[in-house]
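Follow-up to my post from last week.
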Amino acid sequence: MAGDTQLLRTPLYDLHLELGAKMVPFAGWEMPVQYPMGVLKEHLHCRAAAGLFDVSHMGQVILPEGAVSALERLVPVDIAGLAEGRQRYAMFTDAAGGILDDLMVAKKPGHLFLVVNAACAPQDIAHLQAHIAGVQVVTDRALLALQGPAAEAALAGLVPGVAAMRFMDVAEFDWQGAVLWVSRSGYTGEDGYEISVPADVAVDFARALLADPSVTPIGLGARDSLRLEAGLCLYGHDIDTTTSPVEADLTWAIQKRRRAGGAAEGGFPGAERILAELAEGPARKRMGLRPEGRAPMREGVEIFAASEGGQPIGRVTSGGFGPSIEAPMAMAYLPAELKIGDTVYGEVRGKRLPAAIAPMPFHPHAYKR
Amino acid sequence: MSDLKFTEEHEWLRVEGDLVVVGITEHASEALGDVVFVELPEPETVVAKGDEISVIESVKAASDILAPVDGEIVEVNDKLADNPGLVNEDPMGAAWFFKMKVEDMSQLDDFMSEDEYKDFIG
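User reply:
Got it. Predicted complex:
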């Protein structure tokens, strides 16, 4: 699959091979999809203890402090109200109200720190540079995520200060002379951290974490089942330029200040559509599905209102088997009038199988708020 | 193990009287990853070689199991419905998929021996 394409490698590439990872091309990078433990056990280990993820493929970007209002012109999110030392989920919207990418924005002393998706990073950076002066792309740092109930103890063993952080706090810490940029956040629904570490000490730092018996390396396979159980969107699948933040049920990320009647109402791309959908409700919405039985409904499965006949009412955008819930789960865009508990039918291999509209997350979040 | 036959679709076949027991190879189960769902054919179904008669879903993807020969499904391994992980634990033994009644056993002649299969998967 890689063909002639020049795949990028993270600073941890050799460590992944040493740990027995199976490497696959992902968003232009050569990334570990699983280690010898396997996707299922990696998933369960992360929920029971702690998992270490290499997410260095993601884009790390610094914006000058003065970029707050310029950034607010690109996202429907209250950046001005973000307190120093705090991080917030955001999305770049386009003029039609679709989502160009989702990202994290942290307010740090003297600057903003952004983490964007690997596949979107080149476009995101160009987008930022077109609208904001002084965009600085961070290329000399790895990004690791340490997730799970044992993450706090494992990281605090190296950097004691992290134990006092709360969910979505950001702070800097010294580790053996290197400055770590730490946030208490992640993409698994578990408590945990994302740690930006200088590339030249990234392997040493990862080894120090892996030396803790509770920590095991986790690949992209389990990262996907963990985030899906947590009800979190994957860009390019559950959200993209054809979905608005309101349709995607991400309205919690649009603070009052940016909504109708707020002090900084609108003023972001696609505001007309997004504010109208906030007021009137969208025609369709991202919903959770719990298929009956054990057969997964994967991405692309068409959803119908009845067990036979009719046109599709939606399509699965992410779906698979949840190791922690021991059942299949999926997300789909469906008519907004559907309610939790309603039955719909997914067509799997020519057969319509029932699935219940279900609340998300499928597995409860365990954030330390 | 010497009486086992192997297909290029990574199925194994074992003759038991006039029945053929079918499962997937260890190599296939490793490649699939953790199996989370197995859909088996209905007993008494008459199948033709190449029919998609069973589905395995792993954490990664769905894969079809093909009827390796012409015949009739006479028994399926119901244990796999409740415990699909058996496919990873014991693919060559307890995790057989189905038993077929096969009239023309010469259909098995072209399949690989264990040594040939080992060469095939490299």
